[in-house]
């Protein structure tokens, strides 16, 4: 819960002996309140130690198989980010070279995603894919409004077509910008949007279709090319030209290196914009994302604001104003450092570990794999029907050894299905995968001796973070 209610209690921090620098025992008298500003300052080293100690309770990020977000970077990248901590991304005049690195990253991505003219593609960095998706959604809505001024004025409600598996940022977009979400439910063994479902939901008020490259639920790629082809046919039938946005939060940095023949990007004329998270498979610490439009026409000029830049004007499109520049410098570092071959090697290693781990888990005899980690290096699996434990029990027991493997229930119409999901990231080596397998092997006999899933005994199933 990120929205906090004020806490009115008067709990205090306690400072042990030897934490106080100048007066070790005297420092013990200090008891800064937890929820109010203290009356006076605390020595810097004391303050550092207090915050540092408290944060020990945050989990070990390397054992967190729930998150897509980068948890390890090289020492040189960390040094670079430390050097750039004071740079404000919006201050293009003060930090023109950071602005230049951002521009180079946009060109690199435009080329990677086959923009017809990489130098004419338009794009920007963001705090993550969520902000990038908001911007892309706003551009779609604006284009629709401009195409349909009369309909908009007379109260028609614009809608956005997507699968129910989309990440929560798309629900936010629809709520914040008053767009009707038209979501295709899951059905049987189809866990993401397909072309037929997408077209069936489109009408004259559709601002666009979102295709996800790397569904957060199971790591699968949605069939973007098929969706585009179906929309081509739809346009021939109805005259309605519905643009596509590809949410490539994770897959946008995987497919170009591991699946070069897969056509999902600006090679498809219907794809108007693409986003990715620099802090997922872009291999940068949080928070950086990217939004790109295929050309100037795809991004309405009214949405672009200008900031002062070396006495001139620099166009910007963002929800935030001030934002750290360190992540952009780090993104450029990663691009420079790895090149195409390096990216292929890093993402390939992740996919190899994912495939290996999925295969071994499949052999254990009590799990059924939904995906195999052969698209985004992520896979989801569930328990077979004949075991006395469920995915929530497995997740809970793995947690005892420090592993975070989230368990969660699928959305409509597959609420009957609960899964575990593993995200293989750079830094999750085959050795760590073997340790996870060994732990799983050790606890399965115990789980098999359970009478029934603990949920049935009234133990609440803790649903894990899975976005
Ligand atoms: C993670 C994710 C997002 C949100 O990205 P952030 O960078 O965390 O804001 C959006 N869409 C998909 C498909 C994702 O996987």
Automatic annotation (TrEMBL):
NCBIfam families: Glu-decarb-GAD
GO cellular component: cytosol
Enzyme Commission number(s) from the entry: 4.1.1.15
Keywords, alphabetical: Decarboxylase, Lyase, Pyridoxal phosphate
Domain of life: Bacteria
PANTHER family reported in the protein's UniProt record: GLUTAMATE DECARBOXYLASE
Natural source organism: Streptomyces rubellomurinus (strain ATCC 31215)
GO molecular function annotation: aromatic-L-amino-acid decarboxylase activity; glutamate decarboxylase activity; pyridoxal phosphate binding
Protein name, entry field: Glutamate decarboxylase
Catalyzed reactions: L-glutamate + H(+) = 4-aminobutanoate + CO2
BP GO annotations: L-glutamate catabolic process
Major enzyme class: lyase
SUPFAM superfamilies cross-referenced by the UniProt entry: PLP-dependent transferases
Classification via InterPro entries: Glutamate_decarboxylase, PyrdxlP-dep_de-COase, PyrdxlP-dep_Trfase, PyrdxlP-dep_Trfase_major
One Pfam family here: Pyridoxal_deC
Residues found modified as N6-(pyridoxal phosphate)lysine: 280
Protein family according to the UniProt entry: Belongs to the group II decarboxylase family.
Record has Lyase as a keyword: yes
Cofactor: pyridoxal 5'-phosphate
